[in-house]
Amino acid sequence: MRMEVAIAGAGPAVLLVHGIPHTWFLWRRVIAALADRYFVIAPDLRGLGGTERARMGFDVTTVAGDLAGLLDVLGVASVAAVGIDLGVQTAFMLAMTSPGRVRRVALMEGLVGTLPGAESFLSRGAPWWFGFHGVPELPETLIAGHEAAYVDYFLAIGTYERRGVAPEAREAFVRAYSGRESIRCMCEHYRAMPESARQIASITSARRLDIPTLAIAGGVIGGALAGQLQGVAPHLATATIDNAAHILPEDQPETLLSLLEPFIEQRG
Predict the structure, then answer these.
(1) Within its chain, how far is the Cα of 206 from the centroid?
(2) What is the CB-side half-sphere exposure of residue 221 using CA atoms within 13 A?
(3) CA–CA separation, 172 vs 174, rounded Å?
(4) What residue ranges in 72-119 does DSSP mark as E strands?
(5) What does the angle CA 212 – CA 226 – CA 66 come to, to the nearest 5 degrees?
(6) pLDDT higher than threshold 70 for residue 165
(7) With pLDDT > 90 as the criterion, what percentage of the chain qualifies?
């Protein structure tokens, strides 16, 4: 599969995994800050952004396998992985399925399948778009021709005081999620979530995430992610970023970096 990947710097490898409706461009400030000391790798996930529009394989094990394959191609034996939103479960599964390859993992503003611990967040059910995106073909039909408005909605509710993202990021994300095939691939990640949840439940019943793990809470998922990880990540640390909503690299990039840099730098 052909993947679009942003690569910068030299040194120990750091893998940055985006969510929806984002691309690698979400991490541009993080990349710029880390590239003086690290080899930073920021791919577009399967079917998203500049990566090939796949017909199948949107379950989390396959998507994590895409990342493992990318590391193989780049000759990278060990990474610190960072994931947000959809990238949370992907980075988590990469660490679980590739023991020894992920040396530490930082996760923020996403959930790990249906693991227990997020009951308070889910007390009113999953967000409406999980169900909508899961319906075959309907979202593609309704969103096509209205992609900018649709993406803008998520960029607004995902940022503090609904201020949206920087213009250059908004332009990049709207462009990436325009067209019926782009919308389909976005939705396929949601359609695969029941299977992804089963895969996560299966692997966590057999082993734990036995590496240093950092759960960073913003203002949307909040502590629900840490609640899920408490049962499976014995080396868990937590942090909260105030005055932020969901898209932490846009809302509070400096604060986010102040948490990520010392965590990534630690050895072991």
Answers:
(1) 24
(2) 26
(3) 6
(4) 79-84, 102-108
(5) 60
(6) yes
(7) 98
Which 8-state DSSP code applies to residue 135?
A: S
Across 168-222, the runs of DSSP E, i.e. the strands, are 213-217
Contacts of 176 (CB under 8 A, 6+ apart): 21, 23, 44, 48, 49, 50, 182
DSSP secondary structure of 172-187:
HHHHHT-SHHHHHHHH
Quick one: pLDDT at residue 268?
57
Q: How far apart are the first and last CA of the chain?
A: 33
Q: What separation in angstroms does the CA of 145 have from each of 45, 151, 194? A: 23, 12, 29
Residue at token pair 């932020």: 244
Per 3-state DSSP, what percentage of the chain is helix, strand, and coil (rounded to 5)?
A: 45, 15, 40
Res 111 pLDDT > 80: yes
* C-alpha closest to that of 21 among 259, 250, 222: 250
Contact 203, 97 (CB under 8 A): yes
Report the pLDDT averaged over residues 167-176: 98
Cis peptide before 21 (omega within 30 of 0): yes
Mean of the per-residue pLDDT values for the chain?
Answer: 97
d(C-alpha 241, C-alpha 178), whole Å: 31
pTM of the model: 0.98
